[in-house]
Write a structure and sequence with these properties.
Layout: E1 2-3, H1 4-14, E2 24-30, H2 37-45, E3 54-59, H3 66-74, E4 80-84, H4 91-101, E5 106-111, H5 120-131, E6 135-142, E7 160-164, H6 167-172, E8 182-184, H7 185-191, H8 204-210, E9 216-226, H9 237-255, H10 261-282, H11 290-300, H12 307-318
Parallel strand pairs: 1-4, 2-3, 2-5, 3-4, 6-9
Antiparallel strand pairs: 5-8, 6-8, 7-9
Helix pairs in contact: 9-10, 9-12, 10-11
């Protein structure tokens, strides 16, 4: 087991270099998921077609048996890293620590309650290699089934997919928010992984990676199976609205000088839409607000970002008391 005290030295020793015989590094963040982990790990360890995978688990100070389950099920296995953090910092910080430890050509990230079809990683690597794409995404399905009932599922051999050379434009035009994506390790590490200013990583990882990626593939096949859900951050709509807004807001602020005007306008429209989702549910007479008028205008006109307006929206989101935030 690795602790935070070992982390910096380990990353420095590895120097983030690719290890030739590791084909894919799986990175999983863990926090109180003992109910799911036996099934999730069983499906993960039985992924087909891999030569020499690496498994990286980052525990964010779980209070249940999550760490013990991982230790028991990985006993005697090679290429396993279990980072036991000394304080709870949040999902984005945790996943970045796992990404920093990855050494495979590819990184595939997963939530600790998501189950991979057994051939999904193999198929994702096949299409990525065929088209020299740096990112691969698929679809997911909420099965409503018990975790152990779906650990032996396979993807169909024949599935459709689309390749697009412009990864950023494709991400901005679609939904790429579920974990399970496959991204070239060198691209993901250069992008810095998730934006740690945003608690949930789902929006920021595809944005940041796609800025540097050469090509993206969207598979029309379920690469993630979601079992019966017991507790999920997706039930907190304030959290979702907050994290979507800040993913677009920070990305726009960080990279506006290097992005073309059309991309900036799309990002601005998305931030306005994120803000409107919150306003519509929470403010009195939302359709009479300037937020609605600006959102509506952005649907018809390509507006360039007004950061004075965005900063005020950010200030409002930062006042929310029921939103989790990273704790570096």
């Amino acid at each position: 087991m690795m602790t935070d005290a070992d982390f910096d030295k380990t990353v420095a020793d590895k120097t983030n270099t690719e290890t030739d015989d590791i084909d894919v590094s799986f990175v999983m963040t863990v926090y109180n998921k003992e109910f799911y982990l036996p099934a999730v790990l069983k499906a993960l360890f039985n992924q087909t077609g891999l030569k020499n995978p690496q498994y990286i688990f980052v525990d964010d100070l779980s209070r249940d048996r999550s760490v013990q389950i991982i230790e028991d099920m990985t006993k005697g296995m090679k290429n396993v890293i279990l980072l036991k953090k000394e304080k709870n910092e949040g999902i984005s910080i945790s996943i970045n620590k796992g990404i920093a430890l990855a050494q495979g050509k590819w990184v595939r990230m997963l939530d600790s309650d998501d189950i991979f079809p057994l051939n999904s990683t193999e198929k994702m690597i096949e299409v990525a290699d065929k088209h020299h794409a740096d990112m691969v995404y698929g679809t997911f399905t909420k099965t409503g089934k018990e975790p152990m009932d779906i650990v032996a599922e396979y993807m169909p051999e024949n599935f459709c997919y689309n390749y697009q050379p412009d990864a950023l434009k494709t991400v901005l035009g679609g939904h790429f928010t579920r974990m399970g994506q496959l991204i070239k390790r060198s691209v993901l590490q250069e992008a810095g992984g998730a934006d740690t200013r945003v608690f949930i990583q789902d929006e920021s990882i595809p944005l940041r990676a796609s800025r540097l990626a050469h090509g993206i593939i969207k598979m029309k096949a379920h690469v993630v199976l979601v079992p019966r859900e017991t507790n999920n951050l997706s039930k907190n709509t304030h959290q979702l609205d907050n994290d979507r807004f800040f993913a677009h807001y920070y990305f726009l602020k960080d990279y506006r000088d290097s992005l073309d005007k059309n991309i900036c306008a799309i990002l601005y429209a998305k931030a306005l839409s994120d803000n409107w989702k919150y306003v519509k549910k929470n403010l009195p007479k939302p359709y009479l607000t300037p937020d609605f008028r600006l959102y509506l205008l952005s649907k018809f006109i390509r507006l360039q970002p007004n950061f004075e307006i965005l900063d005020k929206m950010a200030e409002r989101f930062l006042t929310l008391s029921d939103v989790l935030r990273s704790k570096p």
